[in-house]
Amino acid sequence: xxxxxxxxxxEGQQRRLVWVQIVLCAVGLLxxxxxxxxxxxxRIAAITQSPEVIAAVRxxxxxxxxxxxxxxxxxxxxxxxxxxxxxxxxxxxxxxxxAVTATVVAGGMTFExxxxxxxxxxxxxxxxxxxxxxxxxxxxxxxxDTLADRELLTMSLVEEMSAARSGRxxxxxxxxxxxxxxxxxxxxxxxxxxLNEPLNDMERIVAGSRNQRHTVxxxxxxxxxxxxxxxxxxxxxxxxxxxxxxxxxxxxxxxLGFVNFAGEPQYGLEFYYDxxxxxENGLWQGINHPSGSRLMAELGGYREAEDGxxxxxxxxxxxxxxxxxxxxxxxxxxxxxSGSLLVLDSxxxxxxxxANSPTFEPGRFWxxxxxxxxxxxxxxxxxxxxxxxxxxxxxxxxxRVIYPDTTYMDEGVIIVGEQEVRNSxxxxxxxxxxxxxxxxxxxxxxxHVASILGPARFYExxxxxxxxxxxxxxxxxxxxxxxRVPGQDEWHLxxxxxxxxxxxxxxxxxxxxxxxxxLANGGMMRRPHVVAAVSDExxxxxxxxxxxxxxxxxxxxxxxxxxxVEAVQMGMPSALVPGYxxxxxxxxxQVAQEGxxxxxxxxxxxxxxxxxxDPRFVVLVKLDGLTEGQWGGEEAGPAFADMFQYLxxxxxxxxxx
Amino acid sequence: xxxRERLFIPYGRGPRNGGARVDLRMVAFFGTVLILLALAGWxxxxxxxxxxxxxxxxxxxxxEKEDRHRALVTLRGEVAMLGSLKRVLAEGxxxxxxxxxxxxxEGSFVVECTADCALPRPWVGDENAAMERAQAGSLLWGDVxxxxxxxxxxxxxxx
Lengths: 657, 159
What we know:
The structure holds 2 protein chains of 2 kinds. Chain A is built from 24 helices and 23 strands. Chain A is α+β, with helices and mostly antiparallel strands. Chain A has 3 domains: 1-42; 81-243, no CATH class; 317-363 and 373-651, DD-peptidase/beta-lactamase superfamily (Beta-lactamase, 3-Layer(aba) Sandwich). The N and C termini of chain A lie far apart (143 Å). Chain B has 2 domains: 3-82; 118-159. Chain B has helices spanning 3-6, 24-82, 85-95, 127-155. By secondary structure, chain B is mostly helical. Classes of the chains: A alpha+beta, B mainly alpha. Chains A and B meet through helix 1, strand 3, strand 5, strand 9 and helix 24 of A and helix 2 of B.
């Protein structure tokens, strides 16, 4: 019996042990399995968030000497919230802080460190002090006087900070602030002076629409931004972001273009080279803490941003500045509507300066109309007029239908394609040389030469000079010009006559300058370009010439140059540059509208190159909107001379006359 | 069958009064399993902790890198503004500099000088000035020689 009992007890024990074993094994397998799952396949997918973009910084644009023309900075935008401004308690809080800070600064009050009065904003106080003299700015006194009863507020501050406080400080302060005047003007004045914005703009913003927030200032320096942020008000909002800045204001604005509020490039180099300038944004994807902060990136979830490449231009900031100054003054003195001034390096096609008037500030592109944003040097076509005559002669010389000593009989009129062509002075000049043709700008002579050359060779040569094709300059919105050619329905033989002296066809100032560049460079024409090199972390690579072509032979280029040198001295004295030998041609053309030329509206220009015997620079000046009696040589010629003289001085090229 | 075989315990005698029999080998076996599991768990937790700490450190470095990058960009912006033409002109004016007079014309730049050029090369219209400079130069040289001679005579009177 006992043995039976023992046997049962043993069996029960055995079963319990077996169950223990099974449970332990199961637990063990569960743990190991879970560990294996996490190690090999596990993802805590539930708390992984969508990728966060790491912004790339836009590349800079520098001139040939390494000066920044456009760059990016990490700066602040300040916004004004009129809806919060209209809330009494918000406005009262802002008034108190402005009034207290201004009163402290204006009164020269000092306090122990750490014992500043309530409402005092230290960073704002720094902005109210002139950094050069250490004295309070006038703004401090103005704010102190207008936002509160200054005397009462001063008493309250003294009371607050004195050792024996009587408890009246709060009452005095409340009375002082209640006695203050309207806040609008003070607000505008404060924003204008601290953020360096026009006062009337600030007044307009403060009084403006209540339904939206207004941009007060962009690209604000950090110190000013922190001062505004420290006011601790929802009326003025500060946001930091990468900003595009243009340190030289409106300098070279048409070349640079700009970046709009949405960060989209518009016009110029900003648009043309956007892929190089914009770089590539980075990415961060990983695990977040429940509070939102990033914990760690997933494998392969971090890619750092690649900042944009920098552009190094062939442009020289100093020459550009001078070009814009000369053009601006010339447009004013000649009462023209607008103008362009180009300086090219004839040996390379590099653009050293490209100025247009009127101009704009890329950082304030919204201040001007669309028309002003256009780069007139490449986007506006015009009938070049008499500046084309040297090219007609060059084409004929190259075809050997005339020679440098060829003459013709100028009878004051010639008929080409049943159309009469007359000289601008309506005179007959008798036996005339090619040089005299250029010196006196004789339309009859040009048409005569073109007739001898014939339409086929004339237009072939002009195509080689680049007319009716874009030059391919690395800027946006380049026009190609218009030149009807044989074979087109619109072409007529009379076009040959007109085109020979630059009418009945249109071109951009750049096309004309580039064509003259060929004459200056031994007949070799080079593609105009603005960017000389692109620089990034991998290094700096030079931008190679896209194309160059021999338009006329070097001998022909030299012959035409000699003619132009003599022609300038004979007929265009206003363009002469003392001490230097230059070649050039003036032009005065009309503007066609709806099939007829506008009366009393002219475009005057002068294009030239030098210095001889080794010309380096081509300079073109064009003025739009000249009136009857104004000639290109007389209005644009002096500007050419000024620009050329500056170039010689700047480059250290001594006189050779 | 013997009791030991039924219970598949290789050895060990339990009490005949029905009490539990403790098999040391089984105890050791399961104890080892538990220890190994605990060790694996500890290793995993430690590794996960180290990874998390490292990831946090990496994240801090990333943030620091981004901060420094922003600071660099800000500095570059300041450099650009400091080098702007407007500032250069303003500071230059304050320091007393002025842009060259546009009527200065010839003679307002440095002229290249060849190796044998001892004096500035004259240019057109300024021949008199060049002659005056040449004369002044010779006078100056004469003056230097005379002074040197005086010094030598004073130093060595017996020569």
